[in-house]
Known about the structure:
By secondary structure, the protein is of the alpha+beta class. It has 3 domains: 19-118, Immunoglobulin-like (Sandwich), CATH 2.60.40; 124-239, no CATH class; 244-377, Glutaredoxin (3-Layer(aba) Sandwich), CATH 3.40.30. It contains 11 helices and 15 strands. The protein has helices at 20-28, 120-136, 139-154, 157-185, 189-196, 207-220, 225-238, 279-295, 311-321, 337-341, 366-377; strands at residues 30-37, 46-52, 55-61, 69-75, 80-86, 90-96, 101-105, 114-117, 250-252, 258-260, 268-274, 300-306, 326-328, 349-353, 359-362. The strands form 4 sheets. The chain has a 5-stranded mixed beta sheet, covered by helices on one side. Strand 2 (46-52) and strand 3 form a beta hairpin. It is elongated.
Amino acid sequence: MNFIKVVVISVLGFWACSSDSASQEKSKNTITLSGTVGYPQKNGLILLERFEGTNPVPFDTITLNENYTFREQVYIPVAGYYRLNFYNKQAVPLILDKDNVEVNVDGNDQRGFFQVNGSRDHDFINDVQEMAQQFQSSDEVRDINSRFMTANEAGDEATMDALRAEYMSMDAEFKNEIKSRIDSIGASLGVVEVLKGGRYLDKDKNYEFYRNYAELLKKEMPNSTVAQDFVKEVEQMGKLAIGQVAPDIALPSPDGEIVKLSSLRGNYVLVDFWAKWCKPCRMENPNVVRMYNKYNDKGFEVYGVSLDRKKEDWLQAIEEDGLHWTQVSDLKYWNSEAARLYNINAIPFALLLDPEGVIIGKNLRGKELENKLEEIFANK
């Protein structure tokens, strides 16, 4: 059988470098990419592609041997997101940095078998996913869920609260284990991939951990676009971190009067981003109304920021849900000045501010909001 031929594609000028320093740098950043293809195709190429933003760009080609294996020395100038594209039939996403990586695939179906070995980034992601699955399916969590359902059916609020606390304690241990794993692995795009979604570690509650990891990436991976994009995201988070003064907002009320968030200083204020079309927002509104009615005369205010597009929708929802507190909107949907200022990409979103405008809580809903307000106003 003849070797499967591939056309060499070069898209980077560094291949032409000939100086000793450039050669040494290339050698230092060269990894071995190997693997097997179960079902090679007669037509097409095996391409290593590098992501530029969301676009995969051809970076190198891979030669398949007659025994369906490949083994290539590949220069990785900077850690980042790549993928191996097999004949435009199956693409395997990769994080490439300094590790030699083995990729085994079917090669003929996007939903086909693939396996990535040797990458600490991939191993870390897989380990966290497995940890989360084991935690959620553990006998202890299942028992709590079962007892919670029974208590809920019986209307036993005390037992439900106790079970919530028990689960949160277990969840905290699970999250501490993830943090410990992150500390041990150091600077890694695998960690970035886990952290940036906020699925496993809440960004707000773990802001200091995020900030410290971003500082590590600044030092250890200054040339990685992926790492530095994460650093910028964390820096943006810092503007709305607990302990920071909330940025001021100045938008029209339903009467057209410009009302500033800062005009409510001296009160505890819930800054509530919502919209008529947002079902979770509407479901939470009765709880906010109840808290407002309970604590308004003690110094609790709500500053509602609607992301609606039509004034009639906005006003209708205000009346339907009884949201008779300060309401503002520029009716620009996601392009609202306030939404852009606060980097809002999902609602409901809420901040609780102290009388000086300092953020003391984020996205407190239901029982969490009730408990926080009870704590604040207990002796007032």
